[in-house]
Amino acid sequence: MRKDRFRDVERHVEVPLARPVSGRPIWFDAFLVGVFSFAVFAATAQYHDPLNNDTRAAAIAAWQLAHHGNSTLDAFYGHYSWIFESHGRYVTDRFPGVIFWATPFYVALGGGDYPAIYPGALAAELATAIATALVFALASRVVTRRTAVVAALLFAFATGAWTVAADQLWTHGPAQAAVLLTVLFVARRQWLLAGIPAGFAILIRPHLGEVAVVLGVVGVLRYRRARPLLIALGSGAGVVVLLLYNHALWDRWSVFGGYQNTASASAHSMGDFLIGVPGVFVSPERGMLVMTPALLLLIPGLRRAWRVAEWWIRASALADLPMP
Q1: How large is the C-alpha radius of gyration of the chain?
Q2: How many domains does the chain have?
Q3: Does residue 168 surpass a pLDDT of 70?
Q4: What is the DSSP letter of 50?
């Protein structure tokens, strides 16, 4: 009886709202939401030094790859952080996904003998705008479009998406877009396609591999079929590319790459991890509930929302829980 009730909810909510209304397809409205978000992001991003060490290292690596076709950063050693010696040359320990994402922007816009800031900033802005459009597309599957617009704009401008992800070339924007696109394909049961952004997410932040694992396993349990495991093809390819990249730079088969350097890894420990998990929510410096206090207003409705949520919403929430 309970299962039938949830099936009725799915039929009532997901299918009708996934169809075009008012003559406009959902993708068109998602595009408009993304364009608006991008315009605001582009008008307010940081285009001048000093940049954060993480974002600057990613930007110069993307410029180097775009204009010289390699990852050697000898010319920048001593001027920027997160550049380390590896087998006779200097490279960055930034993960490759964000570097790969920004490289086309430096190919198209970053001419000259020195890496400009604005191509990297535009890469961050576009990734975060795409993430905003995807939030709208996902929300449109379960609520009205008007409500979906509100949800997307809250994501864009009432969270760290605007103030952090779209401000500089962090991993956050590309990672958000990759994970949300994965979830959208999963919600549409397009498992093979879901693996592509899932694999790219691993290149951006390797621990995001758990998203593909959780969504694939829950999909198998939900439909009692092996087809959801097709997500492993794309996500597995991401792991392979990451291993090859790290071996080329650091001469070791590892998903952690340069983070295994003493200079880079010394600040991380299991104790820091255990402190960091609750810190995600309540840290005075970067806690989610501190930086986005509006989320506190949602707590009273969490139980009811969980009870009526689509299976892919629940699975996505479960996939996100272990992430620091």
Answers
A1: 21
A2: 1
A3: yes
A4: P
Backbone torsions φ then ψ of 239, nearest 5 degrees: -65, -45
209-223 vs 231-250: helix crossing angle, rounded to 10: 160
Token representation of residue 164: 């952090």
- What burial class does residue 9 get, using C-beta atoms within 10 Å of its C-beta: 0-12 exposed, 13-18 middle, 19+ buried? middle
Asked if omega into 206 is within 30° of 0 (cis), the reply is no
How many Å apart are CA 166 and CA 129, to the nearest integer?
8
pLDDT digits (tens, 9 = 90+) for 229-262: 999 999 999 999 999 999 999 998 988 888 765 4
What SS3 class is residue 253? coil
Asked whether the CA dihedral 261, 66, 98, 241 is positive or negative, the reply is negative
Asked if 29 and 36 count as a contact pair (C-beta separation under 8 A), the reply is no
175-211 burial, b for 16+ CB within 10 Å, e for fewer? bbbbbbbbbbbbbeeebebbbbbbbbbbbbbbebbbb
Within 8 A by CB and 6+ apart from 60, the residues are 73, 76, 80, 92, 115
How many other β-carbons are positioned within 10 Å of the β-carbon of residue 266?
8
pTM here? 0.87
Residues 299-304 have a mean pLDDT of: 89
Sign of the C-alpha dihedral computed for residues 259, 260, 264 and 268 taken in this order:
positive
Range of the structural domain that residue 237 is part of: 2-320
Distance separating alpha carbons of residues 57 and 53, to the nearest angstrom: 6
295, 292, 36, 309: CA torsion to nearest 10: -20
In this prediction, residue 321 has a pLDDT band, given cuts at 50, 70 and 90, of confident
